[in-house]
Automatic annotation (TrEMBL):
Residues 12-333 form the D-isomer specific 2-hydroxyacid dehydrogenase catalytic domain. Belongs to the D-isomer specific 2-hydroxyacid dehydrogenase family. It comes from Anaeramoeba flamelloides. This is D-glycerate dehydrogenase. Coiled coil: none annotated. CDD domains: GDH. Keywords: Oxidoreductase. Residues 117-300 form the D-isomer specific 2-hydroxyacid dehydrogenase NAD-binding domain.
Amino acid sequence: SKAPSIIKKNLFVTRRVPTEAYTILSKYFNVDIYEEDRTISTETLLDRSKGCEAIMTLSLDVLNKETILDPRFGQIKMISNYGVGLDKLDLVTATKQNILITNTPGVLTSATADLTFSLILALSKRVVESNKLMRKHSIYDQDQFDPQLESLECQSLEKKTLGLIGFGRIGFSVAKRAVSFGMDIIYHARNERKEQAKVVNATYCKTLDQLLINSDFVSIICPGTPQTKDMIGRNEFKLMKKTACLINTARGSIVNEEELISALQSDEIRAAAIDVYTKEPFVPHALRKLQNVILTPHIGSATRQARNDMGILAAQNLIDFFIKRKCPKHAVN
Ligand code: DGY
């Protein structure tokens, strides 16, 4: 349909978005896109934001107080985040500056839950170590058929306890997957979520300690906030079972990375699967050296469907505000 005749506002987009979103956006905005396939530097972000009323960011872009208060950012009225996580954005300063923030919840829930569950499976059946082993030798039966299971001892998920730290949309989706594998589910969150818990027969742990002591798989699936920073560190690893695995598909800041490395080096826990890092996109050398960790490059939402839908939703949020003059459904402030 033909867009109403309007004076188009300037919009800066910090990374190439899927074509469908771009097509929608360019109907209504003068779109300037950062074309390079890497995270934009703060200086470039500020230079290109100059004269724009809106910016579309990625969850990895750092928008701290200094950036938001920079004169080059002065005309920005809305930040539409392409993604759900807003941990790198200073919400308080943005709100004080009267900048509207939106994100894209919901459309990446199943993609992220799938990744989380695939990591749980990969850890339990030692898929990554097996794959590595297969490439080393042409004869493998000394490992695979060892009745003592000295190497490659796998676990079954049935009757194992999955501990979810966070029980929002994605946590609940992970729980639904776990039900069909016969897992027992416990969760820790700020508030008890009785209705969802009933659906998956999940038990609420009031304290984090209670969850850590009892879980065979600990899945972190809560937002990165000042309250969850370093939530999992030395003391928490000590509470976990020696046979337990940790899966982090939420935010790197929630786990103290150095203490995770020590816990894995000293076999304090059996293994971990990590999709998110403290200083993304940087991955510490010591973590990369460890054999008992699976590393993936922040791919929770990396399906065509999710990435397209995130783009469309981020575009809709902008159109709601600037064109339809209404509060976008996914406004967070
Ligand atoms: C998000 O949406 O916050 C994801 O982590 C980025 O894909």
